[in-house]
Amino acid sequence: MPPILQGLFTILVGVTGCVAYFWLSNLLLDRVICPPHGPHAGRNITRANLIRPWLFLFPALVVLGLYLAYPVVGSFVRSLHDRSGTEFIGLGNYADLIASGGFRVAVRNNILWLLVVPAAATAFGLLAAQLTDRLSWGNVAKSLIFMPMAISFVGASLIWRFVYDNSFDIGLINAVRGAFGAERAIDVIQIPFWNNFFIMFIMVWIQTGFAMVILSAALRGIPEETVEAAIMDGASPTQIFFRIKVPQIMGTIVVVWTTITFLVLKVFDIVYTMTGGNFGTHILPSYMMSFMFRDDGRATAVAFVIMILVLPVMIWNIRQARREMR
Amino acid sequence: MHSIAGRKSGLQWAVHLSVVALVLLWLIPTLGLLVSSVRDRDQIAETGWWLAPLPVEMTFRIRAAPDDARASGDGFVIAGNVLDDPAQARWFPDGAGTVTAFGTRGAAPTEHAPGDTAELRTGGTLSVARDGAFTITAPDALTRPVSIFFEARVPPRVTLDNYATVLTSDGMDRAFLNTLTVAVPATVIPILIAAFAAYALAWMDFRGRGVLIAAVVGLLVVPLQLALVPLLNLHNAVGIGQSFLGIWLAHTGFGMPLAIYLLRNYMVGLPRDIIESARVDGATDFQIFTRIILPLSFPALAAFAIFQFLWVWNDLLVAKVFLPSGSDAQVMTVKIADDLIGSRGGDWGILAAAAFVSIAVPLVVFFTLQRYLVRGLLAGSVK
Amino acid sequence: MPTRRLAAGTAALALIATTAPAQELFLEPGADDRFSWHTLEAFADAHDHTGARLSVAGVWTGADARMVESVLAYFAHATGAEVSYSGSDGFEQDIVISARSNSAPNIAVFPQPGLAADMAARGLLTPLADGTEDWVRATYAAGDSWADLGRFVGPDGEAALYGLFYKVDVKSLVWYSTDAFFEMGYDVPDTMEDLLALTQRIVDDGGTPWCIGLGSGAATGWPATDWVEDLLLRIAAPEVYDGWIDNSVPFDDPRVIEAIELYGHFARNDDFVSGGAQAVATTDWRDAPSGLFRFPPDCHMHKQASFIPTFFPDGLEYGLDYDFFYFPAYARHDLGEPVMGAGTMWAITDDAPVAQSLIAFLQTPIAHELWMAQSGFLTPHTGVNLDTFSSDAQRGINEVLLDATVFRFDASDLMPGEIGAGAFWSGMVDFTTGADAADVAAEIQSRWDAMR
């Protein structure tokens, strides 16, 4: 069966399967197990209401457990074993990693990514949101800045190769340098340390639109009176922006910031297509790929280090969510 | 009063200009890709895409064959036209064109102005006229072909050849179908599962609801990398292995927390009275869900669908691990990253065309459904 | 209305049908009597796999992929099987993942015996049919060494022949543009000393001597490993080279470091390489030789294996436009004229009768001749008609192979996959972009130590 038909078939089976499961299980509950009539009608209704949420949740919980919760544990257990997976070596893989220079570079770069990309994307997004606000053609501008969001990391890397390339006729950066009289093209992807920032900018380019859209909505939500009052008091536009507007949307800024932080931890494609991790540009996800399925012990250890990096943000996020529910 | 208005319009101008600058910065790289994808590969190597509408000065070499020589006076002469050479035919239809310089050595292909007469290293002379006509004179019979280098101004050539090549011989057509095959089920199935769960978490009261919501929020950020090794091993153990079924399941799993989170946030905001009154009228939860909640949640469902579709369509990592690496299962991102960047490394036109084929569908989806995406994003992030 | 629906249905069918295009035969069987067509007929008579599917995976992409497909088309034609080939720059990683997921192709074409040895030890390869080993020893020139290179220890501890070499390359070659050498009056160097002098002379004449490109997607860096291997064979005895492969000579041995630094002499000098030292690491290796053929030339020489003419710009002719010379040895070291080569090894990763038949097909002369007639192909098969070589260049390279006083297989291909197809590559990229040779060598050695 060609995959495309297989795909259509799967949609059909998946959708009807899901609907059938929910419909039948509810039917079963209401008609057979706890019918809301007869001698125990009241008790049955209470019981059905106890069971029903779990019927609704069951498939999602299975999927979440199997594809997200189990791997956290599974990966951790695997990372305590040697390359073949048979011998328990405790924290040996972690000790080896800490001793290796490549790992330290990857951690350093990853921390740089975590600091720079969310900050830059949020800042650009805020700037774009403020500037396009009340502009007659603001929506068009927003749409264009938002567009990279639809482009794959691989596609974006190719796009930026046309900017970074090491020749006057392909690379835009070198073309500009050439116009100012540079003799020899440089390869920005090879400048030690700073090359990381050029690669990060691709991610900033993709994520700015996301930040802008959300922050722009938040800016519109600011009560007019506060701004008007500030104008009456003679505040300058910059003062209004930083003293009045930014504090009021701080909550949204933090949400945007953390969302982009999580995305940064998943990025592997950009480094893989731009440099393959060469020139000191590895980040943990790409560094992990150089071990994966050769030395799974180390690969999973690297993955777990990523998990540790994200843990503080995760805990903060959960606490935030719980506070909102109350 | 006047001065304030003046300052105000000055500020307005500054805003306009900075937005223009920002938009250009964001648009130019993509524009470069689009322009390059319709240029001829030889012209891409000569001038930057920003000069694409201008004619290009390109250097060519042809060889005059000794067989074409005829005796003339006390030596030999070869006459012909450099623009007639079949190797350059696509640049000079009908042999028309203008030679701007010529030379006898590869090291200095533009030494001489058209019309000049140059000395050949082997003895004899070469002259090339502006219209391409050339004359070689030699005192003795020629044994080796004579190389003639010339530079000509060539009009820009806009072509869809790159797209044709990418779609036919490079296998992007197959990769496109594969991407589509991965993306559609991986978008539809998680929505259904997540919608039911989101409803339970939003509108049903039961013990452990708070813990579950917190767990979903926590799982939202579990790095994908953790899942790769254990899950592929699991798939191997149960016999799914690397397959389309495997990648559908994997994407369903990885997209689930965001789906539940987005949909729950939206459903919580629906008016309580509608649901309460439906309950009073004796509707079951299943009926409330299908008849009231689902239709009302359409914007959030659409937003997540767009999100998930873009994510799956653009994914490289999951495809590399959960799909077989053979060309009959390669998706476009893998095709570009593992095959084309390598085999077509210097062939910028081909790379650009391939990239454009891969981003065309997401761009269409994005621009037509942007409204829903924005609404969904806001539902998820701004409270 | 019904007609419209019908039309849509046919369109959908057509869309599905076009996904499996039938490969055409580039030469009608029997058309050219230089080819051993009778071996194809005999093979076709003995093997019928109508309806069977055979999948082959390898590293070849682009032009190479089209050539291997063109040869496999004859197999498909002869047996009726449906053959699909897929190439990937990430082959080294993909094949391990897919073999473990039971989604391996039937046949994998390994550029590195080292990686195949890893997989054989884990039981992911199937030994070749009995008799294949004897056939290799008898039919291939220097058959014993080709057989030994394809013999690995399986999961049961028994050694067996797991891989058949088909398509061999000579790596110790330097390519140049005949026009450019002729114009400038350069002579082909006979010794390494002459080559170093010529390099300097080209700079003095205002030219650029070398084009070097290491870019190769996920495999970026491998061309530099060839440089280092060739240079090591020219400054140290072959035994050192052999010891280096099994790590009895450590990677950070002074002689290895010296070879790395010698490579750096060429590649890390802005005046010696086209685009400057920085361009080396990112220029794609397939794109690098095109600099030889620009006007004015970007460079004059390009060191690369016998398969590189496949990637030269279209329409160039051996002898008229380009030529090659042997990457010379030092006159002052008495180490003979070492030649380094490599080859691709075909092994069965998912056994099936049709896979066994493909291995048998690769033993027929016609399978070799069909690729010889194209480009970038050498073979140790003694039963083929050498007239089928498409160019004198390939015949000439065969002579290099025959004149060798020392022949060694590409070391990085024999090292364990993690080193030879991983740490060595990225280490060479680090070195090319400025890292210290000793540091790079020590880092690679520590990765090797970690594997024990």
TrEMBL record, chain A:
Pfam families in UniProt: BPD_transp_1
CDD domains: TM_PBP2
Membrane topology designation: Multi-pass membrane protein
Major localisation: membrane
Residue ranges of the TM segments: 6-29, 50-70, 111-132, 144-163, 197-219, 249-268, 299-318
ABC transmembrane type-1 domain: residues covered: 107-317
Protein's GO biological process: transmembrane transport
Domain of life: Bacteria
InterPro entries: MetI-like, MetI-like_sf, UgpAE/MalFG_permease
Gene Ontology cellular component terms for the protein in this record: plasma membrane
UniProt key word DNA repair: no
UniProt keyword annotations, A-Z: Cell membrane, Membrane, Transmembrane, Transmembrane helix, Transport
Entry keyword Transmembrane helix: yes
Subcellular location: Cell membrane
UniProt xrefs under PANTHER family: BLL4140 PROTEIN (PTHR43227), DIACETYLCHITOBIOSE UPTAKE SYSTEM PERMEASE PROTEIN DASB (PTHR43227:SF8)
Family: Belongs to the binding-protein-dependent transport system permease family.
Listed name of the protein: Alpha-glucoside ABC transporter permease
Species whose genome carries this gene: Rhodobaculum claviforme
UniProtKB/TrEMBL annotation, chain B:
Keywords, in A-Z order: Cell membrane, Membrane, Transmembrane, Transmembrane helix, Transport
Biological process annotations from GO: transmembrane transport
Membrane topology summary: Multi-pass membrane protein
Residue ranges annotated for the ABC transmembrane type-1 domain, each copy included: 176-369
Pfam name, any one: BPD_transp_1
UniProt keyword S-adenosyl-L-methionine present: no
Localisation: Cell membrane
Protein family membership: Belongs to the binding-protein-dependent transport system permease family.
Name of the featured protein: ABC transporter permease
Species for this entry: Rhodobaculum claviforme
UniProtKB/TrEMBL annotation, chain C:
Subcellular location: Periplasm
Signal peptide boundaries: 1-22
Keyword Plastid: no
Presence of keyword Transport: yes
Top-level taxon: Bacteria
InterPro entries given in the database record: Bact_solute-bd_prot1, SBP
The entry's keywords: Signal, Transport
One Pfam family matching this protein: SBP_bac_1
Main subcellular location of this protein, as a coarse class: periplasm
A GO CC term attached to the entry: periplasmic space
Family of the protein in this entry: Belongs to the bacterial solute-binding protein 1 family.
PANTHER family given in the database record: ARABINOSE-BINDING PROTEIN-RELATED, OSMOPROTECTIVE COMPOUNDS-BINDING PROTEIN GGTB
Protein name as it appears in the record: Alpha-glucoside ABC transporter substrate-binding protein
